[in-house]
Amino acid sequence: MPPRVLPIVAATATAAVLAMIVTAAVPAVRSPAPRDAPPQTLPDLVAAPEGPWLPPPAAPLPDLPSLRGGTERVGAHFRVVSLPGGADCSAEALAAAESVWPLCRAWFGAPDSVREKPTVWIHWSEASYHEVERALTGGRLARNLAFAHLATRSAHVVLQARIPDEARSAIGLHEVTRRLVAHESVHLARYVTSPNAGKHPQWLADGLALCISDEACRAAGWSVAFAECAVTSTRIAAAQKEARAGELPDFTELLSGETADLGFQSRYGARHLAARMLFDGRTGETVRAYLRARFAEPDGPHWRALFDAGLSDLLTVRTLAAAHSEFPRWVLRFEPRWDDPGLSLDTGRAGRWIQWAGAAGRTAWRIHPARIVTVAGEAEFLSGAECALRFGSPGRPVVTVPLRRPAGAATTRFRVTLDGSRLRATVDGAQTVDVPFDGPASAVGLTAPPECLLAWNGVEFSASAR
Ligand SMILES: [Zn+2]
What we know:
Elements: H1 7-11, H2 15-25, E1 71-74, E2 79-82, H3 90-98, H4 101-108, E3 119-123, H5 126-137, E4 146-149, E5 154-158, H6 165-171, H7 175-193, H8 202-219, H9 230-244, H10 251-255, H11 264-280, H12 284-295, H13 303-332, E6 343-349, E7 352-357, E8 362-370, E9 372-381, E10 387-392, E11 399-403, E12 412-419, E13 422-427, E14 430-436, E15 441-447, E16 453-464
Parallel strand pairs: 2-3, 3-5
Antiparallel strand pairs: 1-2, 4-5, 6-7, 8-15, 9-12, 9-16, 10-11, 10-15, 12-13, 13-14
The chain binds zinc ion.
Zinc ion is lined by residues 183, 187, 206, 209.
C-alpha cells in the first residue's frame, strides 16, 4: 500500500492553514517551511493567562457505599485511598502513582507542583469497582478494571488478583496493579495540568500512559518492562498475531484512532507499539517538545484540529511515509517473552512471583523458562468446579493437571514437579499425570471458573533453569 499522510490532513480543508498558524505560534518546535500566506489568528485563540493554569474544581464523586472508608495517603502530586476489604496498600499504590510524575514533566510538560491533587482509589473487589464505574462511565470500562475520569479527577483500580492476605503481604502490590495505578496516574496528570486534556487524541492519551507507566515501573525495579514483562508482552504478542494476519491498522490509521476492530489486548499492544515508535526514534524529542507546548495552551473549540494538523506538519509527509513503511517491521522486531493472552504471574523480580488474573476465571504463574519446577500446596474452591493446573511453554502443547475437590473435603492438595525431562503431578495423594516434558516450562497456570477459586493455602513454588 502506498504511504499516506495523517487522514486528518485530508479530512480538514483548512488543515494546511491551521498547521501554519500552529507552527508559527509554537516556538518549541522546528520552524515551519516558508509559506505564502501570512499567519492568521483564529477567534478562539486567546492569549495565555498569567501564571500556571488552574483546573476548575473537580466534580464530586457520587455518594456510593463502595467509596466509603479506607485509608488515605497524600503525596506530592496524588492522593490515594486504599478502600476497605484488605490490608492497607496505600503506601505502595502512592509510590506507583508518584513514580510517573518526573516523566510526565519531561514528556508533556506537567509542572513541578499541582494545586489540586487527583485521587486514585484502590478497590479490593470487582463489585466495588463496577458500582463506581457504572455510576461514572455507564459500564463502558467495566472490563478494564481500571479507569481515570476527567470530571471528578479520580481513578479507580481493582487490586488484582484475589489471593490470600498472607501471599499478598509476601509479594506486595502485584505488578499489574502497580502498572494500572501508574497508567491511570498519567491520565490524571494530564487532567490536572493541561487545559485541553479532554481533547487529547485517545491514541496519544493511552500511548503516553502506556509508555510512561512502563518506563516508570522499570525504573523503580517493579517490572522488567515492555517485551519482557508479562503484562505488556502479552499485548505485544496479540498485536503481532494481528499483524501477521494482516489485520493490524497501519501507523497512520493508529494515529487517527482506528483501533475499533482490534481485540482488547491487541488494541493496547498496537497503541503501545505505535507510541514507542514515535517516542523512541528520531521523532521522539521533537514530538515531546510539541506536546509540552500544545498541552499548556488554553482550551478552545479548534484546539484538536490545530493539534492534529500541527502534528502532521511537524512529522512531515516524508517522516510519516517512512514510519508507515517501517511500522510492520517495528511491530514484529520484538520478541515478547509471554504469549498467552490474559494470563500471567511473572517472576519479574528475581524469583519473586507476581500474579495477574487477566481473563475471567484464569489465573497463572508465569515463570522465566525453567527446567526444574515445583508447585505444591492446597487449593480451596467451590464444589463441582472444574479447575486445572496448566504447564506449558511456547510451541508446546499445554499439559493439564485436573484438580477436583474430593467428596466431603474442603480442599485439594497437589504437588507438581518438572525434573528436566518429566512432568509429574500428584493430586490428593494419587498420581494423575506423568508425561515427558523435555525442555523448559515458561507458564504454570490455573484455570478456574470465575469466583470458584476461594483460596490458595501454603503454596510453595520454586523454579530454576538447571
Ligand atoms: Zn488508558
